[in-house]
Structure formats: C-alpha cells, structure tokens
Amino acid sequence: MATYDENASLALRLISEKGAALTFKRFIMGAFDPVTGGSATITYIKSPAVAVILPVNKSDSSRMSERLIEALTQGRLRKLLIATKGMLFEPSASDFTEFEGSYWTIAGLSTLKPDGVTPIICTAFVERVNLSGAQVAATEVPL
Questions:
Q1: Which of 24, 47, 98, 139 registers the highest number of CB atoms within 10 A of its CB?
Q2: Average pLDDT over residues 88-104
Q3: Which pLDDT score, from 0 to 100, does residue 120 have?
C-alpha cells in the first residue's frame, strides 16, 4: 500500500502534466501605524506550486456564498486543483497568486489529508482581485 507521501508525489506528477507553475504569496501586515491608520509595512512569504486552472461549473455553485456566486456571474472566479507536494506552506484563504494577467486570492478551499497530516491536493476557488499599491510593492521575507 502506498504511503500518503507517495500519493502526494503522484498528485504532483499528474497535475504537472497539464498544470501551470504558480507562486502563492501570503501577505504579512506589519505593526499598526497610528499616523496613517494602516500597517507600517507589508511583507510576504511565497511558495512555488503547480495547479490546474479550471472554470467553475454549476455543480460547484451549490456550495458557494452569495458573494462567490456574484463573482462567478461576473467571470471573476476560477477553480484550482493544487498539488501541495513541494510547497513551503499549505495554501489558506486570502493567499494570492497570479495568472491570466491578474491577481487572484483564495476565497475558499478544501485540502485532502487522508491521515490528517499530509496534504495531498487542495481544491480552491480563487477570485480575481485588485491588489493595493502597498501589496504590490511589498517586500519578500525568505522562508
């Protein structure tokens, strides 16, 4: 019987065949700046990933909030099948990636972890967003 790590390797190999190389970013807000009323600095960590980019279908919409259904009708929603093997951190809501010339944020996701520990694959709904100038100019923090 294959171990879960072997299953994660298989998922990576299969998704790599048709998938795209993406980079996920997680923004880290600095200390509150009372003068500006916002964060003094914004940094981020990043992780490489491989994912298949899919359109969202009608059966997916039965599990969505009204906000995501609105994003779907406006063409601002995609579905990603992400191979988690080799990622530096597990994807979570509000992480960002870039494809199709736009920035996308994870609006909802489900991670398959048969043993409760080892992530094999992640299914995520991503929504096209506009990043603030501060987020675009954020400084990377190496992991």
A1: 24
A2: 92
A3: 94
Residue 18 Ramachandran class (φ > 0 left, ψ -120 to 50 alpha, else beta): alpha
Residue with tokens 């490489």: 48
Q: For residue 53, how far is the Cα from the chain centroid?
A: 11
What distance in Å separates the CA atoms of residue 18 and residue 27, rounded to the nearest whole number?
Answer: 28
52-62 pLDDT tens trace: 999 887 777 77
**CATH number for region 4-140:** 2.40.10.270
**How far is it, in rounded angstroms, from Cα 44 to Cα 59?**
34
Please, are residues 15 and 54 in contact by the beta-carbon 8 Å criterion?
Answer: no
Half-sphere exposure of 16 (CA within 13 A, CB side): 11
Pair of tokens at residue 116: 């409760």
How far apart are alpha carbons 127 and 38 in whole angstroms? 24
Beta strand pairing call for 121-129 and 77-83? antiparallel
Q: What pLDDT, on a 0 to 100 scale, did the predictor assign at position 1?
A: 43
pLDDT for 2 equals 63
